[in-house]
């Protein structure tokens, strides 16, 4: 019996290669609601909670930027006030006591101010582009994590389904062996230990199948969670078996490019913001200059009913400047703090570079190890099938004992399941390596 008799190689067809679509299963046409890896990832990028939160955070950040820049627009305000003078002020003038004012006073004031020079606003203006870039990078980071985690969960579901298919094949084969052994015992060719061993093996396989069948439900639930998929709706997946060897491979000679990692890009953007903050503190002694215009309507009368019968307007325009002279070394301390924050971030950037290098070396080592193991298990599977075929033939001819057949059957089943475990490991480690290299495709 050849390798293809027991399984068709599992292909999770698209390892994040741009534009690659996962096709239908060779054993039959996919249903209309079956999703490929690309469709699953695209759905997740639009519906997962993490992406929705990241996009909302980006909108909040953009609104905060607009709010910080709103100080450049004219600031308009209106004030209204009313006073009842219980005891009006008096002053002796020319030997007489003169009472000033009216019992009732009221005023309506309109004021407009326009900032001309404000260091805080200049900082907000210069930092706006960097802040927008940082928000965009945060969204990109979430997209990368979403693609990787959803892809791994997708692979895990398919791996588990393939394990279930292998166990179904083993159950079918073992049921036949059990029936054959029982028939041989009944005609007196063998003793009852053969069919008893067959019964034990069959029960163990059925137990494994039940465990795997239940784990599929948990794997699908986890994938739905990552996708933001409706819990009550059925999720069907489709994939292509034909391009496994091509898709699991990756260029292991590619050198790491630190600039491609979004984590470093975020730190560099933060560095730009800290440089602007340092410049702001360095020039914090500059004055704040603004222009203003006021228009006031004054009302006063001794009778409340006649208070608003006549108004007395006044207005003014001008310019004002506020210059901090001495603040107890606060500006100097703030400048030193800003410079130290830059130094601290420089240390963090260098440490992040080392961490990324460690992540890359680890991912590369894992991928190479997993790929070698997958190829080894693939070869072992061919030999396990040949061994099983030979021993099965020898058992049928009465040359081998039934226990030898059971051992060969167990080894074959174990090797088949190990094959898919190894395949999942190499697919996952390839994703980790692509993330370490900064090669995850998020433009879907």
TrEMBL record:
Ranges that cross the membrane: none
UniProt key word Transport: yes
InterPro entries: OMP_efflux, TolC-like
Keywords: Cell outer membrane, Membrane, Signal, Transmembrane, Transmembrane beta strand, Transport
Signal peptide: 1-23
Subcellular location: Cell outer membrane
Family the UniProt entry places it in: Belongs to the outer membrane factor (OMF) (TC 1.B.17) family.
Name of the molecule in the record: Outer membrane protein
Organism, as annotated: Pontibacter amylolyticus
